[in-house]
């Protein structure tokens, strides 16, 4: 009996241990990440394998069919032309797609093919039923060859594993250095076989980014039978080749154990550094362990925010958080070497050099999110920007692969740098930072010369004048705040005046921001709903959308309207007046509620403006609608371009209950939390916990707030309160509160 009792206890203990382990496994946050969310329609997200902020984004490319294939992949496709090692996520322009590898069997086909049914192309069809996409892992069955493709990655190495069907003839891989995404075209390339399992080379290309230079090493898990090199489709003798349009075919006698593994390491500097990256990051061949390590890296980053919510909301939230960490991506080697914008090699830098700065988008919320969740990355971002400033003579505008694309309007490296400084970051040269932000504002392009004279930008002299001027005013406000903090009185006074120039474009008669001609008259005819892409006074928007782009001085904007009541009436109309954009409008204007466009970044702060007029409950109504209508766990779960994390950063902030309306004043405006609770793990292992009491679909209005045990009546919270650690309780109800956030002294203030 004693033996049976002991056995029962041991069995029970073992069972409890097993259940506990299972429970721990179930709580992994990476299980909620679905990289396919946002891969349909206009989301343009990257689908494939990578690690947080990694240099490698290894994933499948479809046949390119236009704008919705900017990342190389769209969910509606059923073709794969190869697996490439660099991708953008959520941009409106296609580029990258470097070093495409396609496994194949049977007859050698050198062209990728033009359609899904092209028998003369090496592409393959696939089914989503045979596709798996996770954080750090991607797999798919290539129908044409019955090859299972699996991908994972480290920071600088892409790891392929291909399982071939037993007995298939002529197994080979096609390495295509011609293929690129969108505008990307090769300029020069090379292959060189070093030994039986190693190939090195480079691919220089020109696309959206003007001068891209990438070096690689390809390491195979079994010896090459023979390597055949092609210049276009012409066979070249030997094991080394340089040219412009190169391909290589690697043939094997047979695939050992039906599994072929390939490691591809990248470097912006040299093949030698690519080899160093490979040896340092992935010396072995354990694919499963690499998948596990990649998953662990994602888990570590995702665990910075632990939330309580439904599984569907967790899926949307953690996928959004995942999307905020695809870029900016590393653009250096393990020894800290990198290639600068001036194309010189900088050895052993004292920071991590980065690339892919979609600043017109990310300055609004993605970069502020880093100041909370990725405090170790903020100085790298700023130091990269300052290095770019020294190398190209100005801060980055939209920087990609060591080249300036000059895409979009504004000089939005400024708010990123200033926000970092004002939040206490000092891991960079402050004097150089001020010099750089001031230089941005003293250029002579795109109407900035008018701003320098404290004048408006004439609409008949400069295209997109209103959008440019409003964005400049935001940046100039940031420079003024930086100058004030550094006791630079004259600069503070000058840039404060420039920050107020937004008022020059406000027509009080019609109550819109609109273009003003050189003779001082308003441009006519005028339609507040019409939008002509790249041909009017706005950038991807109309007057309804741009009239609210004054996050640096919402109080001043309210005064232009004549007070809170008039301001709110007009703001209400934004969400109800029918959008009639016209045939020539930008496809970026999406996710519409009336004329409000959630799918495009200039409007991301607008729903939160009600708090400035003492009606925060209207923000709650709209956020719940946006959440319901425009964010889901399906492939079409984003209503517009992801734009390198900004569309998702809006959701991450909003779900936690607050948002940085002003991108550089260290304040976050409350909305309505979508979560039941959240715990943010900060630097130094401090924690900030959010508990939402009584939250439901009906109970969407904040009634009262308790911060660190004390009643908190303000409708905003300061950055310093969050990063200090502590707790906040938010009490919800089904009716708007008559007291919380209503009094003038409790409303957000632009300058803190």
From TrEMBL:
Domain of life: Bacteria
GO molecular function: carbohydrate binding; peptide-N4-(N-acetyl-beta-glucosaminyl)asparagine amidase activity
Cofactor(s) the protein requires to work: Ca(2+)
Domain Glycosyl hydrolase family 92 N-terminal positions: 32-267
Keywords, comma-separated and alphabetical: Calcium, Hydrolase, Signal
Transmembrane segments: none
Signal listed as a keyword: yes
Signal sequence, start to end: 1-23
Keyword Amino-acid biosynthesis included in the entry's annotation: no
GO CC terms of this entry: cytosol
Pfam assignment, any one: Glyco_hydro_92
Span of domain Glycosyl hydrolase family: 273-734
GO biological process, one term: glycoprotein catabolic process
Oligomeric and partner information: Monomer.
Listed name of the protein: Glycoside hydrolase family 92 protein
The species this protein was found in: Pedobacter roseus
Source species taxonomy: Bacteria, Pseudomonadati, Bacteroidota, Sphingobacteriia, Sphingobacteriales
């Amino acid at each position: 009996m004693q033996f049976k009792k002991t056995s029962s206890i041991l069995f029970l203990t073992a069972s409890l241990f097993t259940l506990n382990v299972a429970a721990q496994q179930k709580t992994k946050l990476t299980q909620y990440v679905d990289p396919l969310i946002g891969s349909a329609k206009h989301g343009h997200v990257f689908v494939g394998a990578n690690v947080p902020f990694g240099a490698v984004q290894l994933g499948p490319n479809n046949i390119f069919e236009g704008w919705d294939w900017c990342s190389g992949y769209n969910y509606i496709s059923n073709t794969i032309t190869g697996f490439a090692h660099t991708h953008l996520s959520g941009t409106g322009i296609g580029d990258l797609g470097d070093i495409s590898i396609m496994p194949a069997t049977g007859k050698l086909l050198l062209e990728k093919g033009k359609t899904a049914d092209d028998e003369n192309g090496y592409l393959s069809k696939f089914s989503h039923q045979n596709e798996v996409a996770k954080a750090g892992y991607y797999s798919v069955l290539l129908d044409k060859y019955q090859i299972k493709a699996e991908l994972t990655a480290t920071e600088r190495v892409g790891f392929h594993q291909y399982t071939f069907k037993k007995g298939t003839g002529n197994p080979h891989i096609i390495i295509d250095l011609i293929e690129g995404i969108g505008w990307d075209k090769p300029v020069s390339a090379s292959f060189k076989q070093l030994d039986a399992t190693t190939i090195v080379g480079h691919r220089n290309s020109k696309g959206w980014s003007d001068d891209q230079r990438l070096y690689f090493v390809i390491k195979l898990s079994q010896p090459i039978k023979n390597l055949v090199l092609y210049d276009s489709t012409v066979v070249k003798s030997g094991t080394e080749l340089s040219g412009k349009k190169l391909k290589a075919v690697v043939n094997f006698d047979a695939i050992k154990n039906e599994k072929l593994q390939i490691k591809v390491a990248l470097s912006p500097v040299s093949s030698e550094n690519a080899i160093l990256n490979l040896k340092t990051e992935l010396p072995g061949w354990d694919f499963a362990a690499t998948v596990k390590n990649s998953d662990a890296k994602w888990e570590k980053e995702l665990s910075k925010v632990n939330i309580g919510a439904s599984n569907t909301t967790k899926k949307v939230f953690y996928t959004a958080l995942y999307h905020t960490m695809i870029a900016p991506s590393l653009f250096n080697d393990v020894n800290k070497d990198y290639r600068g914008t001036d194309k010189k090699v900088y050895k052993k830098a004292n920071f991590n050099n980065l690339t892919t700065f979609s600043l017109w988008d990310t300055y609004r919320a993605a970069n502020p999110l880093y100041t909370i969740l990725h405090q170790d990355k903020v100085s790298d971002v700023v130091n990269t920007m300052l290095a770019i400033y020294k190398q190209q003579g100005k801060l980055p505008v939209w920087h990609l692969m060591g080249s300036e694309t000059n895409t979009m309007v504004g000089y939005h490296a400024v708010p990123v740098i200033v926000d970092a400084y004002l939040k206490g970051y000092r891991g960079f040269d402050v004097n150089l930072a001020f010099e750089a932000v001031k230089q941005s504002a003293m250029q002579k392009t795109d109407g900035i010369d008018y701003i320098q004279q404290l004048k408006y930008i004439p609409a008949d002299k400069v295209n997109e004048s209103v959008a440019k001027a409003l964005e400049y005013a935001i940046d100039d406000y940031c420079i003024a705040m930086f100058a004030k903090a550094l006791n630079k009185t004259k600069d503070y006074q000058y840039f404060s005046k420039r920050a107020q120039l937004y008022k020059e474009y406000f027509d009080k008669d019609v109550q819109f921001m609109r273009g003003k001609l050189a003779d001082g008259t308003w441009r006519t005819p005028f339609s507040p709903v019409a939008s002509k892409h790249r041909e009017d006074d706005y950038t991807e928007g109309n007057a309804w959308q741009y009239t609210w782009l004054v996050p640096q001085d919402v109080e001043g904007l309210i005064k232009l309207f004549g007070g809170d009541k008039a301001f709110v009436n007009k703001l209400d109309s934004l969400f109800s007046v029918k959008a009639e954009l016209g045939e020539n409008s930008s496809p970026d204007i999406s996710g519409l509620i009336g004329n409000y466009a959630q799918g495009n970044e200039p409007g991301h702060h607008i729903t939160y403006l009600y708090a400035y007029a003492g009606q925060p409950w209207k923000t709650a109504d709209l956020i719940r609608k946006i959440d319901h209508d425009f964010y889901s766990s399906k492939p079409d779960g984003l209503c517009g371009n992801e734009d390198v994390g900004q569309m998702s950063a809006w959701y991450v902030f909003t779900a936690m209950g607050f948002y940085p309306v002003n991108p550089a004043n260290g304040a976050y405006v409350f909305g309505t939390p979508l979560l039941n609770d959240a715990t943010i793990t900060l630097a130094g292992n401090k924690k900030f916990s959010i508990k939402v009491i009584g939250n439901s679909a009906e109970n969407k209005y904040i009634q009262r707030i308790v911060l660190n045990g004390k009643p908190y009546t303000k409708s905003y919270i300061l950055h310093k309160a969050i990063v200090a650690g502590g707790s906040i309780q938010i009490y919800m109800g089904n009716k708007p509160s008559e007291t919380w956030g209503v009094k003038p002294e409790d409303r957000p203030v632009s300058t803190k």
